[in-house]
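Regression test attached.
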Amino acid sequence: MLHLIEQTLASEPPQRTAGYHAYFHWRWLGAGIIEFMPRKLATSQVVLSAGIHGNETAPVELLDALVHDLFQATEPLSVRLLLIVGNPAALRAGIRYEHTDLNRLFALPAKTPYRKVPEYARAQELESRVQTFFEQAPQLPRYHLDLHTAIRGSRHVRFGLLPWQSGPYDAGFVERLAHAGLDALVLHDQPGHTFSAWSNQQCHACSCTLELGKALPFGKNDLREFSAIRQMMTSLLTGRTPLSPPPEHLPSCYRVTQALTKLSGKFQLHLSDSVLNFTAFPAGTLVAEDGDTRYEVVSPEEFILFPNPRVAVGQRAGLLLQPVTWADIPRSDMIQTG
Ligand code: ZN
């Protein structure tokens, strides 16, 4: 049996780094990176990551519970699976990150000024592991769910962020997300530097960042709140198709209309610290300013997401969204293989 949290948080690598089970064999590839290979023919390949931010413990507990489920399983694993605990050092310290936000360091050019920060080396390691994992089975569909919890409260408690992509989203994947108990789904409008944006752009995976509630310390999370997402992940791992008909309540949908980029030390956010994610503001509201750059709400209204003025210069200090409908999400029955 593998104890994901204990062994990831230990400063020494585990004594046992591989093992067999009736339905799979597993290998410890590095700190918090474990591969599970099914004994039966794999139907797809899945990367599940959590703990990219070290203060977001619930998703790591959720992966730990999934590992437990895998070992106790009555149904065989039917996918190649890579589990990732993103930032063990920050998890050990109970902080979001030590030097720089790891989830802004993917898909960076080789000459990036971030190349000297320790998180950059971790982003490179994760990129390399995920790319190798997917390339070992080039014919199989690729999925990546990156699990997070948000810093502030939210009018939609559980939501997903779909990375920008040039073509339509995989219909089966979007359908699965609808069954994950999400309250909202957000579509990005441009390529980004998050883990899921990278796996989507670079590996052509069906990727999504999932925000599953508020960040709390280890042991303070109630995993019952995550039962729908846990069921969705279990169905993905056992190769079951999504339950149909579609759920009664489809998630509310939004698309990103503006990114509030912190251009300089003069950046000022004109929102209180207590404002909830997905709060609406009427047209003309000055949300933030940075020297001569003014970030104003455009007609008819926009919704704020992830406002955070304490990011590094050059990074995103918030997003503005406009609502769209479920039918507006471009979908295809063809899996994007690039
Ligand atoms: Zn996060």
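Expected vs. actual: identical. The chain has a mean pLDDT of 92.
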